[in-house]
Design brief:
The complex is a heterodimer. By secondary structure, chain A is an alpha/beta fold. In chain A, 41% of the residues lie in helices and 18% in strands. Chain A has 24 helices and 17 strands. Chain A has an eight-stranded mixed sheet with strand order 15-16-14-13-12-11-10-17, with helices on both faces. In chain A, strands 2-1-3-4-5 form a five-stranded parallel sheet, with helices on both faces. In chain A, helix 4 links the parallel strand 1 and strand 2. Chain B is mostly helical. In chain B, helix 1 crosses helix 2 and helix 1 packs across helix 4. The longest helix of chain B is centred in the first third of the chain and has 16 residues. Chain B starts with a helix and ends with a helix. The chains are: A alpha/beta, B mainly alpha. At the A-B interface, helix 3 and helix 10 of A face helix 1 and helix 2 of B.
Chain lengths: 638, 82
């Protein structure tokens, strides 16, 4: 029902929390322990207890932990849901600061430019409204056209509120589908009476998705998410009458997890790879013992069909940009042969971006997979039917997500979906091509292995970098990269889509989006630079606010090409120098030497630099930029 | 579960809801005696009790509660009926 069934049982949660309180370890360990406790199947009282401690120690948690400011606006009481939301975000390593608008004040808070909402400067706003707060109650005999007009008017009002909120707060908006648990008046005939409350609400909801996409608003699709749970389990009518709680406190952990996963996705914390065991996970039986003909897969048996159906689900996930990898204790040749030769197999060898079949321990295999794919361990989900392997993974690599897989394969896909690991806030053409891109990367690595030296390897790739200003069509992809790139990221500044849009319109800001194509295919939009034109002594300088690159195109000297484009602009604009900053994080050690390697000189800053930040400067004009003769650059200025 | 056991469980719930390990519930205790006992925590106590005792209260039953003693009697009655 409302249980977080993909998480391991709460077990000794209460003792573990008490011990954590007593010992209160140093910042890093405290944060990891709190996240660990959040990743258990805890009820609403345990969630409250964890949240209470979290709130208490929040100032002590490490700076590396991502944070987000969330405002809640609703037509019902929401305060009781806050612990669930904060813990739902913590489960994904995200710390929240939450502001709840007073009950009944959601409209005023948006309309009044001086409201507490705007003073709070939210980075995300959740609008949780019921249908009575937007839709009128119409006489049942109202003609269909009038009922339809009422739905459109409500959508218009909501859209203009979004617009106002966006203009004033530059925030990401999350709109909950309208809440309603009104019992039907007509039963099955209900939706054919245009003015009935249910017909109005469902019509509203079905148009809401398109409207939200137009306005780049995200949905909290309560109706969709609750369809497997039953809306009635989310609410308790007496609590509405007593305390105006549309959602029961008992449902707070579940609801909080739904909100938490969207917020984590906004911050780029969604998972990217499903790492799969083989025997009894992708098929029934043991391929090494039972052989190709002995494993259970398809062939009309219920169990065999269930495994096929799980494979089909995974195959569909690759279509939306989720990578698959194998981690199996098996003979590699036997495991690969199964994918190549089994007639019913839906997944094929080419669907896996990494393939670890050997007799080593799985945490080592998972580490290698992360390294091969240039991704952090916290991007991986480890899917294995064996409880002992799951337990070992949780103990050894706590940052890897490990779902508590049910015993029946027919329930695997639902378990993975319910866990919300792969929540998205956009879907771009880059996502649809991701798997091919990683496969092409493997071919590039083979070319690299055969090339005698770096220069010839780079030349043989036949690269073309196309650079342009951020285009409206790039907005989703640019925001995605800004929020999820950790390694090749000089400043790790995160911006919401609204903020990126504002930068595109700012005449003092130069935006650069780089797309790289080579002989193996299109790597997509993978490089971003944001420069700010600032006054500098007698002239002007460009301060590089953001410089990041997807790890997919590391080691191709794309950064040299991007620099040459920025330098071109600088000379046109009469800029005397470029200023760059490196802000260290636990994940961006890779680019520590980025600026000196491009010929920038260190700048002494006054006083102690905060958190080890370093500043670099490149005078233009006389300076020799690093040569770019290994690729073609196409720069489309505006 | 006898009356004493209900009191003991309720005591745990109260300590948890009010985050106060020194709370001792008694039959006459009511919202007037505990400063943090507002409508928000009132609902938390109700929902926590529903989960712990495996019962569901009605709106009217909640309206009629005057003190902890009433609450224990109500829980006892509902458990018997269940």
């Amino acid at each position: 029902m409302l249980a977080l069934h993909w998480l391991p049982p709460a077990g000794d949660f209460d003792t573990a929390l008490a011990e954590l309180r007593r010992d209160e370890p140093a910042a890093d360990m405290l944060f990891d322990s709190l996240t660990g406790l959040a990743n258990r199947q805890i009820d609403f009282m345990q969630t409250r207890r964890l949240d209470r401690y979290l709130t208490e120690v929040m100032p002590k948690l490490p700076a590396r932990a991502p944070r987000l400011r969330l405002a809640l606006l609703g037509s019902s009481t929401l305060d009781h849901l806050v612990p669930g939301i904060r813990v739902g975000a913590l489960r994904r390593g995200l710390l929240l600061e939450v502001d709840v608008a007073p009950y009944g004040q959601w409209r005023q808070q948006i309309l009044d430019p001086g409201s507490a909402l705007y003073a709070f400067k939210p980075e995300a706003v959740l609008l949780a409204l019921d249908h009575a707060s937007l839709l009128p109650e119409l006489p049942l005999e109202t003609p269909a056209a009038d009922a339809d007009a009422a739905v459109n008017a409500a959508l218009e009002e909501l859209s203009s509120l979004w617009q106002m909120l966006r203009d004033r707060a530059r925030t990401t908006i999350i709109q909950q589908t309208l809440w309603s648990d009104e019992p039907p008046l007509f039963g099955h005939f209900e939706r054919q009476v245009a003015a009935s409350p249910t017909a109005l609400a469902t019509r509203f909801d079905s148009r809401l998705a398109d409207r939200a996409s137009e306005h780049r608003v995200l949905l909290l699709d309560l109706r969709g998410a609750a369809s497997g749970v039953g809306m009635q389990h989310l609410s308790d009518p007496k609590l509405w009458h007593h305390a105006k709680q549309a959602i029961s406190p008992a449902a707070a952990p579940w609801l909080g997890d739904q909100v938490g996963r969207i917020l984590a996705a906004i911050r780029g914390l969604s998972k990217k790879v499903a790492v799969l065991d083989l025997d009894n996970t992708l098929w029934g039986g043991v391929i090494g013992d039972d052989g190709l003909d002995g494993i259970v897969l398809g062939q009309g048996s219920g169990n065999g069909e269930a495994f096929l159906s799980f494979q089909r689900y995974l195959k569909r996930l690759t279509g939306r940009g989720i990578l698959l990898a194998v981690s199996s204790k098996n003979d590699r040749a036997i495991a690969e042969a199964a994918f190549d030769q089994h007639p019913e197999m839906i997944l094929r060898r080419g669907d896996f971006a990494a393939f670890e079949a050997n007799w080593n321990d799985k945490p080592s295999a998972v580490r290698r997979i992360a390294r091969d794919l240039d991704l952090g361990l916290d991007s991986l989900v480890f899917i294995d039917d064996n409880p002992a392997e799951r337990d070992l993974m949780r103990r050894t690599l706590p940052m890897v997500a490990v779902p508590e897989l049910p015993e029946a394969p027919e329930l695997y896909a639902r378990c993975i979906a319910d866990a919300g690991y792969f929540e998205a806030v956009s879907f771009t053409t880059d996502d649809t091509q991701r798997n091919e891109q990683y496969v092409a990367n493997r071919e590039r690595r083979q070319l690299q292995a055969s090339a005698t030296d770096m220069e010839s390897f780079l030349r043989d790739l036949q690269m073309t970098l196309t650079v342009s200003r951020f285009q409206p069509a790039d907005l989703a992809r640019v925001t995605q990269l800004i929020n999820k790139t950790n390694q090749f990221n000089l400043t790790t500044r995160r911006y919401t889509e609204a903020e990126v849009r504002a930068m595109m319109e700012d005449p003092h800001i130069l935006t650069y989006a780089g797309r790289l194509v080579d002989r193996f295919g299109d790597n997509g939009l993978t490089s971003i630079v944001i420069g700010r034109i600032v006054p500098d002594d007698s002239a002007k300088a460009i301060e590089l606010d953001t410089w990041l690159m997807s790890c997919r195109v590391l080691g191709r000297r794309v950064e040299h090409a991007m620099l040459s484009v920025v330098a071109q602009d600088a000379s046109t604009l009469g800029v005397s120098r470029l200023i760059g900053r490196y802000r260290p994080t636990p994940k961006n050690g890779l680019v520590k030497e980025h600026y000196p390697s491009l010929g920038f000189a260190p700048v002494e800053t006054d006083g102690e630099a905060e958190n080890g930040e370093t500043t670099w400067m490149l005078p233009l004009g006389s300076n020799h930029l690093p040569p770019v003769d290994h690729m073609t650059i196409v720069y489309r200025r505006d | 579960m006898n009356e004493a056991a209900i009191y003991a469980t309720l005591n745990e719930i109260f300590r948890d809801v009010f985050d106060d390990p020194s709370i001792e519930v008694s039959p006459e205790m009511s919202a007037r005696d505990v400063p943090e006992w507002d409508s928000f925590n009132h609902i938390n106590i109700i929902v926590a009790a529903e989960m712990r005792f495996g019962i569901k209260f009605r709106a009217a039953e909640i309206d009629a509660l005057r003190n902890v003693g009433d609450f224990v009697a109500l829980i006892d009655r509902k458990r018997q009926a269940a």
